[in-house]
Write the structure tokens for this entry.
Amino acid sequence: MLVVLSHIALLAQDREGSKGSDFIITIDGDIVKTIYRPEIVILDSGTGVKSVPISYHPGALSLAKNDRDHLLSLDDSIKLLLKFEYNEYTTRGNQKVLNYEIEIGKEWLEQAYMILHIYNTDKKPYKGKLKPIPGKNYTFELDYPGGQMIRLRKK
């Protein structure tokens, strides 16, 4: 019983020190359950590159409260990237590691929820129909309380 109570106390303390956002990631139409090495990268021409560690599980993206406050205080000219790895498995059981870097706005952290839809444009359902981000083989769309950001599709 004491172990359970101490665990609950640690969880409560953890929540006070971190701030989460309702956040869902889909890749090629499937909800992502696990991502690896998630971080928000701050690209500032004045101070260089910095990284903020985050955690993700379906429905929540969390980061330390002081990191969130710092990100929200940054100048709008500073570029932020959501960066993570995703493991994809083929029908033959082979593993393929996919790396994603999505440019985000700090307002993403203030939304009631965000749904990030990532499409691999080198896969048959999206090849030739969606234009990839320059230099990448994927693109993305968003759903959030204020509306949607949808990419143009070729017929």
Notes: The first strand starts at residue 18 and ends at 27. The helical segments are 2-17, 65-73. The mean pLDDT is 87.
